[in-house]
């Protein structure tokens, strides 16, 4: 599937008609839809401290499923999000690097529970 690849809130602008304009297409390419959906759910559910707003995570996954997508309850669907942030660590400044480490740490400690939420 061809996709944006980084549908993080920082790359979206809300238009006056309520639609989103997507910015920063430098990572566009072929992605597995399931990984893209989970990545979007995690990005839009991640708080500044790295924790996850589970209601927002569930809402994003449910929206994808309502559109006909399928998300298996398996750990591999989180791999694209984790890989993206691991790649980013090498380019991040100190402050953003710390936030990125917090995000990855939160995923590591909650992965089992997040997979169960997908079931």
Characterise this structure.
The protein has helices spanning 33-45, 54-66, 79-89, 94-118; strands spanning 2-3, 12-14, 20-22, 29-30. It has one domain (33-118). It has 4 helices and 4 strands. The protein starts with a strand and ends with a helix. The mean pLDDT is 92. The radius of gyration is 14 Å and the shape is globular. Helices cover 52% and strands 8% of the residues. The protein has a two-stranded antiparallel sheet. A two-stranded antiparallel ribbon has the order 2-3. By secondary structure, it is mostly helical. It holds the Pfam family APH. It comes from Nonomuraea mangrovi. Residues 4-66 form the Aminoglycoside phosphotransferase domain. InterPro entries: Aminoglycoside_PTrfase, Kinase-like_dom_sf. This is Phosphotransferase.
Low-pLDDT parts are: none
Beta-sheet strand percentage? 5-15%
Number of domains: 1
Terminus-to-terminus distance: 23 Å
The number of helical runs is 4
InterPro entries: Aminoglycoside_PTrfase, Kinase-like_dom_sf
Protein name: Phosphotransferase
Pfam family, one: APH
Domain Aminoglycoside phosphotransferase: 4-66
């Amino acid at each position: 599937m061809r996709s944006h690849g980084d549908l993080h809130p920082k790359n979206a602008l809300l238009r006056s008609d309520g639609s989103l304009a997507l910015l920063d297409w430098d990572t566009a390419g072929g992605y597995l839809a399931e990984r893209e959906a989970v990545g979007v759910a995690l990005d839009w559910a991640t708080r500044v401290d790295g924790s996850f707003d589970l209601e927002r995570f569930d809402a994003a996954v449910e929206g994808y499923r309502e559109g006909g997508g399928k998300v298996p309850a398996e750990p591999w669907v989180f791999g694209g999000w984790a890989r993206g942030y691991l790649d980013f660590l090498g380019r991040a400044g100190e402050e953003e690097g710390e936030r990125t480490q917090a995000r990855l740490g939160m995923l590591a400690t909650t992965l089992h529970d997040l997979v169960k939420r997908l079931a």
